[in-house]
């Protein structure tokens, strides 16, 4: 390892040196650093002979956290004062240049100070104010789903173009706590070919060079630069140039970007910064320094034809505790993303197929609110507790818009479907997925004791299996109907409930004592609340050990909110136990067993359900959490050898080493290996969590932590103080367990995840006439690995955008039948490729576009 010498002659390893001086998480002061080169009598650095061979693009910058240890309203003020300061420095120093990201910031300026926006636009046109980032904010890029990352660029770039007449060319996200390996494709499709980041730093991830090609699984590449030392510098810049020159000599380039300016709470370039750059220009033997921008730097690099290494993986890890901290914000993000995507699909297709309204402005407002809340210190859970209230309000706003739009779109459809027998009850069930699904749906009806029997029929009069259960209320005659129905691809089916006999149900679900069973599985429950699953198709247990699944393990977690320095959570100190097991719903369509266990002051309730014809096992989880400095994980020790761990990531998947490290993931994690010589595995899905770990065959979901709000090491907690502890109280989420023979790809896990987050929607029908058929389909895809992830109206007119992704890593030729527009499209997908199709709403012609909806 390379050694560095301090002026006192002591030796430091390169890693020690970096650790001492690398930027901590925002606004953490650097440890004092001795100069690496000797100083002259006048205090100026005595540069080594080769120093003048290096060139430094000095990047005037102000990192702005619009929310962190302050509320977002204060962040707005910081944006305004920082931008004014940058304009002032430009007036004072003709060569000074400034870079700033985040379309949200410019939107605030445009709304509150139009004159400032005019000045900024003038400086942008001069090339001195460099808009970068291309996104709505500088987001976390592990936790948002793929479509949210697309929307960061869609709304960000469109806003830059509207306000400033141009888009960003450089993607910029220095403070995010890790970077999903699927980003290069998304950035390319947003018109950005270069990326600048800082975390993880050299002490957290070794890469072959700090300027490299970053390649995503589909083959897309971006030229990527890791910021040396920090994005902040308030002192004279010769110190920063000295540090970079000393520690980053073994690089394939001799041109660097060095960032300067006060940041985190804004501020930007100081007069002292600028004066020191002017002085450094005149120093004998010093590197060449110029006021510059990121665009100018990459223009220079692009022209050098350097031989640069390629990195083919995600850029991890930093602050692993942030995958789990502030679990209500995590759940709000997942729920809001899914609800908006579903609502847009229904309203967009409905706008052409049955005259539904498409509330474009409301959708945009909802997305922009979600995108703002994906700012890294918000979504990571590292902000002040008052912001958690703001986040709840924001997610509620977005969810309300989504749910209103979805139900109104289907209501418009329902009014056109005849429901004419006043002695019957009707509902329309809509499947928002582009393939046929078979589901158990639930709805509370008024069904009083005067009815001697009940029968549920489809539109052709075929009887459907059904059962009754307690309704959600205890007044009147509301009862919950559960019925099993097959629904057409992106389409609907009308169901009729009438007083008539039904045939007996064959192969139903049964439950007794501490077990629940259908034709596929028998589930049993231990006295401590763990489960065993016997897979009848193999005759083997899903979990290693008879009743070892979903063990609720408590781990000691004294780390700060970020979990700095923690790679894995492994210190087990207990588990939930003393379970009480009770059957709360008995088949034959669906049966549910409730398991209640305790640990310390906390209570865990899991309702395990099996449906008649389903190979998937449902769990509704309620956690009443009152622990401190502890972590809860659910353990799933899969009964396989030679396991491989696959994680869903934004618009893709990744295989990671099963070494116990904490990793980020999206909706599911999968363990597949060998069972009795055959391929077997388990996928575990959830609707709210993002932290996972896999140690050999033991897959774990990180359910909850209990840190103090925004506690950052090295500050130590005082046991005498009363702190605000995170994630206390009741939290709910859902899980789905999917045991499978063969791999997750062959079992269409990506489709199951879509169904899990976008279940059928039930709409009650009154009695009325109508001209539409009682069942119909509006869109179909002929390949199971091609997922239609988004359908929306174009931003500039009523054209329809259909976004698809290849989900299994297999090159595929597919056809999409756009039945709602009497149009079809066929084409080839690269492995893991994202395609956006633009359907002309008048002609029906389909063109492939980028994610900015441009040819």
Automatic annotation (TrEMBL):
Alphabetically ordered keywords of this record: Glycosidase, Hydrolase, Metal-binding
Molecular function terms, GO-annotated: alpha-mannosidase activity; carbohydrate binding; metal ion binding
Family: Belongs to the glycosyl hydrolase 38 family.
Protein's GO biological process: mannose metabolic process; oligosaccharide catabolic process
Sequence ranges assigned to domain Glycoside hydrolase family 38 central in this UniProt record: 317-395
Pfam families, sorted: Alpha-mann_mid (PF09261), Glyco_hydro38C2 (PF17677), Glyco_hydro_38C (PF07748), Glyco_hydro_38N (PF01074)
Keyword Metal-binding attached: yes
Name of the protein described by the UniProt record: Twin-arginine translocation signal domain-containing protein
NCBIfam families per record: TAT_signal_seq
Organism expressing this protein natively: Maribellus comscasis
InterPro entries xrefs: Gal_mutarotase_sf_dom, GH38_C, Glyco_hydro/deAcase_b/a-brl, Glyco_hydro_38_C, Glyco_hydro_38_cen, Glyco_hydro_38_cen_sf, Glyco_hydro_38_N, Glyco_hydro_38_N_sf
